[in-house]
Write a structure and sequence with these properties.
Length: 621
């Protein structure tokens, strides 16, 4: 189904700046403003096309009244901001909303076939029609982008006036106008024809414009255009090769999302009034210094006692003991996950619950001995859960064929102390694998050899993206990570049958490291499928044991077998083994790793090596 169009501010006639009139032109959900139509993305509104504006432009900043603040100190600390803000709502009470700018500016008229900038058609105010023919204009189907995240117009003039494979320099003697038409013979690029009325060059098709070196062969390089930031952000010197893209291609925009669970002591909201002061407070080790700071800032009316402030500072130093500014983001994010893992293991009893507590994690009432034969331990019922998902940045051309690592593009032209985010309230089930049994299984020679094949393929992919292998990130593929990942997928599929949840409404959160071996499956939406108790009920030991047995039994057979089980490599560049859409793959929104690093053979074994699977032999006949 085509996604709903975005609500926008109407732009001026030249498409460069928003006008004063603010008509409602469509709507997107707040979650879509983070995952689909975030800053820098292209969105279609009826027959028009726009780019979602950046955050720091005075003409495009979000209205504070419609973008309430969201606090999650642990995530804010590692992202270097004070707080987050919800995207503007799209209900009838919303007056402002998200701002956009017209892009691409090149349009064509299907009646007179002229191809020119939108303003050159002299459209009537507030309409996108040809001033002569009075028919709707069609935005350019093609844009160009580079791996640094810049976005620009397709160079139609250079494409038409190329001599051989090189672009002829434009001279004042051309004097022609561009035309674009479709021959109608096929739906391919060969049928899209571009010409110039100067008569010096023949009509050419768009065939070949998507070749990797098509624009490089014309002598064209990226000029650093950033249309989502408007005229206040001049083009940057770039010089990287340009790639031609379809305007609606997923390669045009991909979000970089980071998330964190709200866990005690930060999960009851008491620390929120001091959100902008925690970084400064961390500079003080002694109570008297903290009290002096609070007195100076709040003039003796601090919303929190000094004892509570010291307790929060102690909790933060426990998670981030060194507080080094040179620590990598991955190091900080791993520490965040480790603290979540420990809190999920220990839970919090009823005496810890307050009215505003957003994290309720309890031990199930049933006897956990039912899980011991399965190698599963420590189930916990997460009856109340809050997750904050922040849009850190975005990327373009983030595809496996990219020659360099994806460049994260900031959401604004200048540093800002907040980021867009969405909040999910739900529930979940947390479980761990028995460490002794897991260690024994990991040391098996056959398991290590199978994992090495996946790790090598994934590392090769990371090396290709980084260009320089010395700068490539290390592959996270380990035996326990792939095992937990595949187990989470099979459980989500099983619970979608047992509890009636759609698979897209559930989400995994993996805790796989040298000292972690757990997985949290939780509701990923805040609507009616969010927190009704149905998922928590599946975490009782008897039900959980039955679900694991059923999930493993279903994983023994795939409708694509024997090809699926016996394949030497599958997925992106061979980063999966026995995994396909007929068995363990999930909707992309439910998976942390985009459906890579999966292998159901590690659950159930193979016909040749049945003992390879961690759960081999547990399924009752």
């Amino acid at each position: 189904m085509t996604p709903p169009p975005a609500r926008r501010r109407r732009t001026g006639a030249n498409g460069d700046a928003p006008a004063r009139a603010l008509p409602r032109r469509g709507a997107v959900r707040r979650a879509q403003a983070i995952t689909t139509y975030g800053v820098g993305s292209l969105v279609a509104v009826d027959h028009e096309s726009f780019v979602v504006s950046g955050l720091d432009d005075a003409d495009t900043s979000w209205s504070p009244d419609e973008s309430p603040r969201v606090y999650e100190r642990r995530l804010a600390r590692i992202l270097g901001v004070d707080h987050f803000r919800l995207p503007p709502g799209s209900d009838d009470t919303s007056r402002d909303g998200m701002r956009v700018r017209r892009f691409p500016l090149m349009h064509s008229c299907p009646e007179c076939t002229e191809l020119r900038r939108h303003r050159d058609f002299a459209p009537p105010p507030g309409r996108s029609v040809c001033g002569t023919c009075e028919v709707d204009l069609v935005p350019s189907r093609f844009v160009v982008a580079c791996e640094a995240g810049h976005l620009g117009e397709f160079p139609y003039w250079q494409w038409v006036h190329r001599t051989g494979e090189r672009a002829a320099p434009r001279t004042a003697g051309c004097g022609g106008d561009l035309r674009l038409r479709s021959s109608g013979r096929t739906s391919s690029l060969r049928s899209i024809l571009v010409s110039c009325t100067c008569g010096a060059v023949p009509e050419v098709s768009m065939e070949g414009s998507f070749r990797r070196n098509a624009l490089k062969d014309l002598g064209l390089k990226c000029r650093g255009d950033r249309p989502w930031l408007g005229t206040s952000a001049p083009a940057q010197e770039c010089g990287l090769p340009l790639r031609t893209l379809q305007r609606g291609s997923s390669a045009v925009w991909q979000p970089v999302l980071k998330s964190a669970l709200s866990i005690p002591p930060w999960s009851d909201g008491r620390a929120d009034p001091l959100a902008e002061h925690w970084d400064a407070l961390r500079e003080y080790d002694r109570r008297e210094h903290v009290e002096i700071y609070l007195k100076g800032v709040f003039k003796g009316d601090c919303p929190m006692s000094s004892d509570d402030v010291m307790a929060f500072l102690a909790a933060e130093r426990e998670e981030d003991p060194d507080g080094r500014e040179d620590a990598t983001f991955d190091h900080k994010y791993r520490a965040l996950r480790e603290m979540e893992y420990e809190r999920l293991r220990s839970g919090n009893d009823e005496s810890d619950h307050s009215r505003d507590e957003q994290f309720v994690c309890e031990t199930p009432l049933g006897d956990a001995e039912a899980l011991e034969p399965l190698g599963v331990t420590g189930p916990m019922l997460v009856k109340k859960l809050r997750e904050v998902r922040a849009l850190k940045a975005f990327t373009r051309l983030a595809d496996p064929d990219s020659a360099t690592d994806s460049h994260e593009v900031p959401l604004s032209g200048s540093p800002m102390r907040w980021l867009p985010a969405m909040v999910v309230h739900g529930e979940g089930v947390f479980l761990r694998l028995d460490e002794d049994r897991l260690d024994s299984w990991e040391n098996d020679v056959a398991v290590a050899a199978r994992i090495e094949r996946m790790r090598t393929a994934h590392q090769r992919l990371l090396d290709q993206r980084a260009g320089d292998p010395s700068r490539a990130a290390a592959s996270p593929a380990t035996a326990r990570m792939v095992l937990l990942h595949t187990l989470a997928h099979t459980l989500i599929d099983q619970w979608s049958l047992d509890a009636g949840y759609p698979a897209a409404a559930l989400r995994e959160r993996l805790y796989a490291d040298d000292h972690m071996a757990g997985v949290l499956v939780y509701t990923a939406t805040s609507d009616s499928a969010g927190s009704l108790g149905g998922l928590v009920a599946q975490g009782e030991p008897d039900r959980l044991a039955a679900a694991i047995r059923s999930a493993v039994h279903r994983a023994e057979w795939c409708s694509s077998d024997p090809l699926c089980m016996e394949t030497e490599a599958s997925g992106t560049d061979g980063t999966n083994l026995a995994a396909c859409h007929a068995c363990v793959m999930l909707p992309e929104t439910s998976c942390e790793h985009n459906n890579i690093l999966l292998d159901r053979a590690l659950l159930v074994g193979t016909p040749e090596e049945p003992d390879l699977g961690f759960f081999a032999g547990i399924v009752e006949s």
